[in-house]
Amino acid sequence: MYSYEFRPQAIKDLYRLPADVQRKIIKKLDYFMASNKPLTFAHRLINVELGEYRFRVGEYRVIFDVKGEKIIILTLGNRRDVYK
Asked: What is the CATH number of the domain that holds 38?
């Protein structure tokens, strides 16, 4: 079973978002982790300097790497800003 952890920058990014968006992102991450293969919900990124994969949560993107069965969340934010 997969689990996830936030890097310090991702925690800062999360706290900058409105409370309802924070809850939505956490709920969606829990949903992805509860499935047997959460990477089926992910898309591989072309620019791997940002991270390997991304999840889409409405207007927001969660950028992450995978280490074994652990998802390391690197950053998150609105789709128009997160790739800059």
From this structure: 3.30.2310.20
